[in-house]
Amino acid sequence: MKRLLPLFLFLSIFTFSSCDDFLDCVVNRRPELPDKSFGVGTIDLYYYEEFDAQIKNEPQDNDYGYHFEIDGDLPNGLEMFVNYRTVSIEGTPTTVGTFRFTVFLDVDPPITYNENNDTYDDPLCSESTSKEYTIIIGE
């Protein structure tokens, strides 16, 4: 009976979810922002940090469109800049403190041109993600 339990669980998953959705998400292709520890900055000194976003388990993630937004407080004097998949936080901070902010990422799949339509036939498990970051500025 114990040998049949894994088979029963496997079949249950297919019964309660569509086969396509389940198989698509086994690979877990989704947008991803890195875990990033930002360096401690100093007031009135130029500050620069960057990170790259990616599509996890997608070798052609350069073909996607990346759209970033920021919510929260950056230190006065710092700004977020986006260069395709690279996000940089840079500038000269004028305020001391600990600043928390969230970066949101939405991606657009590439368009596949074929005879019938212009759609992308290999969907992601998710098209968006977000991550909270912290920057500390000292004197």
Question: Can you offer a commentary on this structure?
Answer:
The protein has 139 residues and is α+β, with helices and mostly antiparallel strands. It contains two helices and eleven strands, in the order ααβββββββββββ. The strands form four sheets. It has a four-stranded mixed beta sheet, with no helix packed on it. Strands 3-7-6 form a three-stranded antiparallel beta sheet, with no helix packed on it. It starts with a helix and ends with a strand. Residues 14-24 have low confidence and may be disordered.
Which regions contain 5 or more consecutive residues with pLDDT less than 50? Answer: 14-24
**Count of individual beta strands:** 11
Q: Give the ordered list of helices and strands.
A: HHEEEEEEEEEEE
Note the gap between the termini: 67 Å
Please give the largest β-sheet.
4 strands, mixed
What does the overall shape look like? elongated
Please, what is the oligomeric state? single chain
Q: Tally the helices: what do you get? A: 2
The chain-level structural class is alpha+beta
Question: Strands of the biggest beta sheet: in what spatial order?
Answer: 2-11-8-5
